[in-house]
Specification:
The chain is of the alpha+beta class. The protein is built from seven helices and six strands; from the N terminus they run E-E-H-H-E-E-E-H-E-H-H-H-H. The strands form three sheets. It has a two-stranded antiparallel sheet with strand order 1-2. It has a two-stranded antiparallel ribbon with strand order 3-4.
Length: 167
Amino acid sequence: MKTLGGYKLPNRVRIPARMLDDALVNIIDEYKHRITKNITLKRLADRTYSDYIRRTKSRNGICECITCKKKFKWDKTGWTWNRIQNWHFKSRMYLKYRFRDDNCRPQCWNCNCNLNWCYKKYTLEMIRIFWLDRVQKIEDDNTLFTIKNWEYVEMIKRFYSFLPKNT
Ligand SMILES: [Zn+2]
């Protein structure tokens, strides 16, 4: 079992030991209950980025679904909050756009389940926000892309730094 500064990391952590510093260990500690499988840099980046998108797109703690406009209030337990998610216009499998703000917006769980209907509406909203040529460019761009471990670590810390603390 890996330890850092006396803290025992969960067994599910699959992150190279040399990447672990106090700041990253703190984030792992906060997110360990929200990642059910092994904790990898990619999964940790997804979780912190989802929070980052929902929090930075909220106003006064209220996050609106881009598609149906239903409003969700931030709550500590996550019960209401988990009903709105970070939705990717271009699939997460395209790493280049997985963590990009011009590809992601909050969308509610309900709309996520009606993808065919929502995809059109979501696309229209993205075009309204970003203009057609940008959305078209993302849609057409299937460039292979890799993210290095240190880049994941930097992203995770950056996303996390945007989140309000003690709420
Ligand atoms: Zn919705």
